[in-house]
Amino acid sequence: MPATDFQGSSVPFASIGRSLLSIRRDQVHAVDGHHHDSPGGGAAHDLELEVFQKHVADLFVDLASSPPAAAAADELLSLAWVRRLLDSFLICQEEFRVILFSCSKGQRVLLARPPLDRLLSDFFDRAVKALDVCNAVRDGVDQLRLWRQHLEIALAALNGGRPLGEGQLRRARKALTDLTILILDEKETAGGSILNHRNRSFGRSSKETHHRRTGSGGAAASAGHFRSSSWSVSRSWSAARQLQAIGNSLAVPRGNEVSATNGLAFPVFTMSSVLFFVMWALVAAIPCQDRGLQTHFSVPRNLPWAASITSLHERIFEESKKKDRKNSCGLLKEIQQIEKCSRHLAELLDPVEFPLTGEKDMELKQGVEELVEVCNALKEGLDPLECQVREVFLRIVRSRTEVLECLSKSHNPE
């Protein structure tokens, strides 16, 4: 989607906390205004940078904290948690943009001078690579939608409010078998056996998407779902290699870089680290072409946000090494529920003897309840997640365009 199509955020930023804009009104305005206008930036500038680092830390401390029992659906790697992660990224991205564009004229000239121009160029190179990850993740969300359709077919057969017969059981078994085949195919793709499809771009119109989802044609329509005249990545594209490219040469600013950039080098490093972690976490959670989580991630422990992000990285990586998750096509909690629920029901339904015994009937009812739970979670969570991934994509495009325009004006003043 072109950057000009951006119409503002649909994400409820207020639900997570006050943005840097409100904090600056409360704190930065307390500092003498002439400091902010001076070429060196002064106390207001330093406070603004400190507040940004602190707010990034607060957001990721919140993500790393264990939820209360009442919020179990919001636990690590659940759909709700991934949505909170993207909320946090969008807030960080907006506040980073505020820092860059709230500079005084004397400070803004630094954006076009070495070494800050190189640091910003490196950051936006990483951001452009992240766009491919966004497209691949959206493709993974569509995979989950397809899985949900098979679950709903099984649910309709088993939970139709009438006595079960051989026809209903046969239909449920077929839906679960088809789902198992899809999951196995996706595991092969995630493990490096790249199938003959590509992730589609966000440029596809909603009308075309609706036609593909609801049009006739059965299996042919489902297969065509991945065909588009606007591919975003090649058939040989690899999520693992893309993550390595995003994290490549990500290094903390040196002393001379910090002084030469009036402290702006640190916000650039912070956003680069946040971008890298968020893309890595998305690939970890959602089915992607040639997934791989072995990328190196290390940040100095003395930074305010380092401990919480490092803790999250370690916890997610440890989760990926568990025996029952090692070969999964995604660490999303709901994917684990899909695999567990579909496997359990398939075992119950093959074979089934009539009439159902009391114990078998109870097990089947429990399996149906679990199926209802995971279907509801997917129904409520997938569309908002796709909207947020789309928002991340558009925010990156818009931010990059604005900075490039600013640099162009700095190089060619009127």
Automatic annotation (TrEMBL):
UniProt keywords (A-Z) are: Membrane, Transmembrane, Transmembrane helix
Topology versus the membrane, per the UniProt entry? Single-pass membrane protein
Superkingdom, according to UniProt?
Eukaryota
Spell out the residue ranges making up region: Disordered: 195-224
Where is it found, in Gene Ontology cellular component terms? membrane
Kindly indicate where the leader peptide sits in this chain. Answer: none
Which regions span the lipid bilayer?
264-286
Localization in the cell: Membrane
Q: What is this protein called?
A: R3H domain-containing protein
Species for this entry: Ensete ventricosum
Give the taxonomic lineage as stored in the record.
Eukaryota, Viridiplantae, Streptophyta, Embryophyta, Tracheophyta
